[in-house]
Sequence to fold (380 residues):
Amino acid sequence: MTDTAANGADGKSTVVVLFGGRSSEHQISCATAAGVLEAIDRSRFDVIPVGITRDGEWVLESDDPEKFRLDPERLPEVVDNGTRVQLPDSARHRTVSVRHADGRVEPLGEVDVVFPILHGPYGEDGTVQGMLELVDLPFVGSGVLASSVGMDKHYTKALLAAAGLRVAPGLTVHDHDWRREAEGIRERIGRELGYPVFVKPARAGSSVGVSKANGAAELDEAMRIALAEDDHVLVERRIDGREIEIAVLGARYGERARASVAGEILVDGAEFYDFAAKYLDSGAVRLACPAAVTGAELAQAQDLAIRAFEALGCEGLARVDFFLDAEGFLVNEVNTMPGFTPISMFPRCWQESGLPYPELITELIDVARSRAEARRAHDA
Fold:
C-alpha cells in the first residue's frame, strides 16, 4: 500500500482539488475552488483539479482560478469536456487516471490527499467521503457519519441537544405529512412556535430554499420552496439575536480541535442572510471579524463550538453558527465544509486568528495526512 508520507519525484505532495457536484450549491463550490487553486502552496503541492458536473461526470479541469471566479453576472460551473477521471480500483494503490475523449487513458499520478470542496448533497453529505474511504484515499474534512449528520439539520439538532447544547425551537415536517395533514401542521406551528418562522430544507446549504414566513398566509409558499429542495424541512422560531460564527480547525490525531476568533453577520440591506445576500448582493450584509464580543463571550463561544464539533464527530474543519440573544449562545448550524473563498467567514476568522489563507490550506492538508497515517498505524 502506498505510504501516505511519501512525496512525488519532485518532492511535493499531490492533492486532488475536487469541486462542483450535483447539488444546488454547484456554483458556490466552483467559486471556492477558485480561491483554493489560487492560494495553495505550489512549492509544496502538485494539484490535480477535478470537477464534477451537474450530471455527476468527473472531469479533469483546468488549473485556472480565473475560470471559476465568483461573478454575480455569470456564476461559474463545471461543464462536460469529454474527459473522465478514474479513481484507484482498489485500496492497494493511489494512482488516479484520466480517460480522454478519444479513449486514451493517462495516469495522473499517486494522490496523497483529496480536498473535496463540495457543498450540499452528493458531496458534503458523506457520499463522496465514503467512496474515498473505500479506496483508502485520505481526504480533508469529516468522515461519513459526521458529514451525513452535519448535512441534515434535523439530526444535527438532535445530536447537539443530546450533548446539552441549546438549539432553536422548531419541528421537522416531511413532505408526505405535509400532503396529508397540512392543516394540522399549520395549527401546530402557530401554537408551538408562533410567527414569524423560518422554513429550511433539512439538507441544503448556502441558504438555498430558505424562506421567512411572517404569518400562516405565507407558510404554504415557504413550504413549497423548501420541499422543492428536500423531502423534509425544518420550521424554526425566529431568534432575535446577533449572528455569531466560530471557525473550528481539527487537530492532528490525539490533539483537541482549535477555535478561531468570532465573526459576525451584520444584515443591512436584506431581510435575512439568504443566498442572494451571501453571494449576489455585496451591499446586503457585512462580515465583521473579529466580532465585537467580550472576552468571556468569546471564550464561551469557542468552547461551545468545539463541543459541537466533537458532538458530531467532525474532523478537519467546520464552521459553527450561533445566535447570541438575551439567554446566551444558541447553536444554529454546524457546517462541515463551509464556504472557503478567501473572503468567506471561515478563512477570515482564521486570518484574524493569525493563520493566513495559504497556510490554512496547508494546515488542513497536513492534518488530513496526519490522521490518515494514524489510522493506518492503528489498523496495521
